[in-house]
Hints:
The complex is a heterodimer of chains A (392) and B (160).
Chain A: H1 9-13, H2 18-27, E1 33-34, H3 46-57, H4 70-84, E2 94-97, H5 99-111, E3 117-122, H6 128-134, E4 138-143, H7 154-160, E5 165-170, H8 183-195, E6 199-203, E7 229-234, E8 247-250, H9 253-266, H10 272-284, H11 286-310, E9 322-323, H12 334-345, E10 347-348, E11 350-351, E12 363-366, H13 371-391
Parallel strand pairs in A: 1-10, 3-4, 3-5, 5-6, 6-7
Antiparallel strand pairs in A: 2-8, 7-8, 9-12, 11-12
Chain B: H1 3-10, H2 16-23, H3 27-39, E1 60-68, H4 77-84, E2 89-94, E3 101-107, H5 110-120, E4 127-134, E5 140-141, E6 144-145
Antiparallel strand pairs in B: 1-3, 1-4, 2-3, 5-6
Amino acid sequence: MDYSKHINKTISGVKPSGIRKFFDIAVEMDNVISLSIGEPDFKTPWHIRQAGIESLERGKTFYTPNRGLFELRKEISNYYFRRFNLSYIPETEVLVTVGGSEGIDLAFRTLVNRGDEVLIPQPAFVCYEPLAEMAGGVPVIIETKEENNFRLTKEELEAAITDKTTMLVLPFPNNPTGAIMEKKHLEEIAEVIIFFFIDTATTEIYAELTYGGKEHVSVASIDGMKERTVIVSGFSKAYAMTGWRLGYILGPAEILTQTTKLHQYGIMSSPTTAQYAAIEAMKNGDNDIKDMRSDYDIRRRLIVGKLNEIGLTCFEPLGAFYTFPCIRSTGLSSDEFATRLVKEKRVAVVPGNAFGECGEGFVRISYAQSLKNIKIALKRIEDFVKELKDEG
Amino acid sequence: MDKILEILSENSSFSVKELSLMLGEPEDYISAQIKEYEQTGIIRGYQAIVDTDKLSDAGVTAIIELKVTPKKETGFEELAEKIMAFEEVTSLYLMAGSFDFAVFVKGKTIQDVASFVAKRISCVDGVIATATHFMLKTYKKGGVCLFGDSDPSDGRSMVL
Lengths: 392, 160
């Protein structure tokens, strides 16, 4: 049967994730150390898991309100005030979603009209382009540069704006580069955003994972930005809760009222058990974050130091749990490098071009992996690069 | 616990240079700290965690619960010194609870251990009772899971 007539043309036009193809190769092999995975290697802290278990024991197995448990929305609101000095009203400005991913999808579908241009800085996580397209938008890519430590500059933003531009995605701390945007840089781009009346979706899922004394600053906290910004965040990375599938959106009530309709019809309500666990995370999880961040930081320093020593130059990433070394000195493309590395040395990293064409020449190395395995993997990468040099 | 100790007690194979990278401290400082820990006896040694179940000549390990009468002047110390002096004893702990010492003993065969208990340890002055338990299988040792295969993958899927 010819299905082409039956299937939505936009979705059939979306290209499959570039990472997928590479994962299929890696998954076939034994003894692979994976530095390719975008989720914490830590298990969810026990007291958080226990809160989930307890909710089940007490029979809390029903839907929650569409927007999420009120107690959780209150905790999220407290948390954003405590950590990022932003206040959101739990009743109308907080929506609990199925992971940050649903939040991103909802943000596009609420804010984008057919034909609107959506600015997406790349390298970036793979979902923005397809989801913007599915919402009827036209993705416009802004290529961030290594010499700017992969942050978005005012000039780059200005150059990409047309009269069709309505929205900017701000994915910082960034997956895959580990780049962050500091307050002064946010202030520069905020001027442009406000001047051109653009909506901003800031994805702050890695907000708790910043290093080198740099605290995450939300663009919504810059004067004049809160009313034109939706924040998408979640529990996955900060609390090692990926499998619970829980995130949230914060934004102006007028926007979230519309977003809530989408969530209500499409999802009903986010997983109940996860919401009870998340209340515990927000109430008593600050120390867990601190401990995990300190462990990530140790690994980050080791990887960055070693990669530079090996000759794969690497700017210092100050956020998330990724490094983004340049592999051009090896003479290989990103795809060749990653494929040969996994085949010859059993170390999986992700080719940089999976995150946008401008990621060519780089690979993403995740340090969400035990120190022991990172040490072994780095030795294998060192041997690999040495052998390449000897070949050449 | 200090970060150096934390890292080394999990994996002592990290070099001074690597520790210096990880902790953002100069190599001199790391070396000096480690030396101090060694000299003050905070670091007592560096060992590999060996999965002896995989060796053909691993022998047997037993835990002996020991009840003793402490000496009037020296308490448990004098007895502990005597017991830890036996070559067969690999670890020794003073316990709170229904017995006093937990003695970890290694021998080539069960008979070896049995004879060690009967002829040596039971005869130490002050020992009133022993209960010997033989270990059958090691699942976790020194914080490392030994059960299952040694494949470094950890159950996380590659999703996107």
